[in-house]
Amino acid sequence: MVEWTDAERKAIKAVWEKINVDATGAQALARCLIVYPWTQRYFGSFGSLSDAAAIMGNKKVAAHGKVVINGLALAAKNMDNIKSTYAPLSVLHSEKLHVDPDNFRLLGDCVTIVVASQLGRAFTPDVQAAWQKFLAVAVSALGKQYH
Amino acid sequence: MLSNTEKELIIQIWDKMLPVAEEIGSEALLRMFTTFPKTKTYFSHLDISPRSEHLCCHGKKIVQALAEGARNISTLTTTLAPLSRFHAYQLRIHPTNFKLFNHCILVTLACHMGDNFTPVAHAAIDKFLSAFSAVLAEKFR
Fold first, then answer.
1. What ipTM was estimated for this complex?
2. Which residues in chain A touch residue B112, judged by CB atoms under 8 angstroms apart?
3. Is B132 in contact with B66 (CB distance < 8 Å)?
4. Which of A82, A91, B25, B43 could disulfide-link to B63, CB 3.0 to 4.6 Å?
5. How far apart are the C-alpha atoms of B129 and A85, rounded to whole Å?
6. Between chain A and chain B, how many beta carbons pairs sit less than 8 Å apart?
7. pLDDT in tens, A75-129
8. Chain A residues interacting with chain B (CB cutoff of 8 angstroms)
9. B80-137 pLDDT per residue, tens
10. In A, which residues are within 8 Å of B30 by CB distance?
11. Are B92 and B137 in contact, with CB atoms under 8 Å apart?
12. Which residue of A has its CA nearest to B120?
């Protein structure tokens, strides 16, 4: 069971309330595909990912980014049982999508960077720490059902 | 692998950060100590509380070294040789910590540059920081 302090819960909730959720998802996924190009292997059916401009303008990437961020929002709404909430998602990523779970952390880092660029000074070191703890729990839960 | 455009972008960004080296460096360090508390184990000899003199001074040194590296990307191994020896034989930092600090530099840049920290800039700086850390860790074994 993950222990969350009141300060952590408050910080994480505040981040979700401040960010443009859909835009964050789209930008984070695009960034992941640009900064860590090997992640493109999972998106063969998305059309052109030939360069940064193509990726940033790709509508399928944007749409999928929204799906991903809303998956994270689900974890945020169930902070006291992220592991069980994510069990079906974990099975999906392992059995059907065959995603190397090391890539989840990279996408998480890209989400953090996008959030940081939106919030600026408001993304203090303490807020960052709480946010990254949340992402680490989500990433861990997503990898739990791999075997 | 860095393209010429990326090398120019990297120089541009670090040139902008040099005048505020203390602010950027100390913030990146503070972010790392707060998010990854185990990294504090390497600084038991310093006062690393927010806005402490040690933190500011140390942060400034790091950003200055990064800016120097940015101006000498094609000769990183020679440029960073003294720092590389220092990290290998004296500091002996566990290599995974470089990634943690690099991530916190990226977050700091994102906070300060906002939308100007474009995905292309992010990729270029991330690659630069990886190359820089690789040289620092080169002599570890």
1. 0.84
2. 120
3. yes
4. B25
5. 36
6. 58
7. 999 999 999 999 999 999 999 998 989 899 999 999 999 999 999 999 999 999 9
8. 27, 30-31, 34-35, 52, 55-56, 109, 112-114, 116-121, 123, 125-126, 128-129, 132
9. 999 999 998 888 888 889 999 999 999 999 999 999 999 999 999 999 999 999 999 9
10. 125
11. no
12. A52
3-state SS, one letter per residue, for chain A: CCCCCHHHHHHHHHHHHHCCHHHHHHHHHHHHHHHCHHHHHHHHHHCCCCCHHHHHHCHHHHHHHHHHHHHHHHHHHCCCCHHHHHHHHHHHHHHHCCCCCHHHHHHHHHHHHHHHHHHHHHCCHHHHHHHHHHHHHHHHHHCCCCC
Report pLDDT for B107: 98
Give chain A positions within 8 Å (CB) of B122.
31, 34-35, 113
| pTM of the complete model | 0.90
